[in-house]
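Sample entry (161 residues):
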Amino acid sequence: MILPEDLRDELKAPLGILLKETSKENISKHIAPHSYLITVGDATTEKMLGFGLVPSLQIVDGYEKRGKRIPPYSSATKLHCDNPAAQITPQSITTIKQAFSSKPPIQILVNGEEDLLVIPVCIYAPENAIVLYGQPNEGLVIVPVTQEIRNKTQSLLDRMI
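Predicted structure, serialized as tokens:
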């Protein structure tokens, strides 16, 4: 599925709470104990690991702000998928579902771009999930997965071509 031009601006708005100050203390205020923590993005994953918060699911692509980088090290089980920029592939959705049925922590290494994978992650995440992703040059977005978020992200996915 390909991201149409008319959805690009809509996706620039954060799905959840935008934190401009991303200290461990500030982030921890928004994460309930025993949450299924999901990070999408290399810098976000690296920041959480650096804080000693090991995400149950980590989705990375080896890029940060379009620049190549080494994906954050994690002892998590590795899964792989292909997901070109501005797309969500059936393979990436299958890999995300596989991750949710596997013993955490899991790290999905994306060949391509992971940004849009926040959408299927929010649709298929377990009940107690919290998704974290970076909002470029603004801060960190924290999304507690609720039925409202599932509906919104399903609607976004349905509108892709």
